[in-house]
Amino acid sequence: MIIKILGSGCKKCITLGENTQAALANLGSEAQILKVTDIAEIAAHGVMSTPALVIDDKVVSVGKVLSTGDVEKLLSA
Q1: Which residues are annotated as catalytic?
Q2: Are 72 and 63 in contact (CB under 8 A)?
Q3: In what order do the strands lie in the sheet containing 52-55?
Q4: Which of the 8 DSSP states describes residue 58?
Q5: What is the pLDDT at residue 77?
Q6: Distance (Å, rounded) from C-alpha 38 to C-alpha 57?
Q7: Residue 75: inside a domain, yes or no?
């Protein structure tokens, strides 16, 4: 599984990354987490507001910081 955190590296993006790591740990799952800060690559995903969460090239959240529980639900789906 490849998870991408799309954003400029702001506090919200960092928090989403931390919550994603915590969700993976809680579920006992492993994934590669990539932080994408390149505006062109973010736009290529069709994302216009950050932070955004992408799981296996599918955009699952845009413009908000998901809680650890919310990320767990997305990963379990």
Answers
A1: 10, 13
A2: no
A3: 32-36, 2-6, 52-55, 58-62
A4: E
A5: 82
A6: 16
A7: no
- Using an 8 Å Cβ cutoff, are 19 and 71 in contact? yes
Distance CA 1, CA 50 (A): 21
Asked if residue 9 has pLDDT above 90, the reply is no
CA distances from 77 to 36, 60, 71, 74 (A): 23, 11, 10, 5
Q: In this structure, what CATH number is given to the domain that contains residue 7?
A: 3.40.30.10
pLDDT in tens, 20-76: 999 999 999 999 999 999 999 999 999 999 999 999 999 999 999 999 999 999 999
* Position 73 in a domain: no
- Residue 76: inside a domain: no
The single residue listed with the structure tokens 């599984």 is 1
Q: 53: closest CA among 41, 44, 43, 65?
A: 65
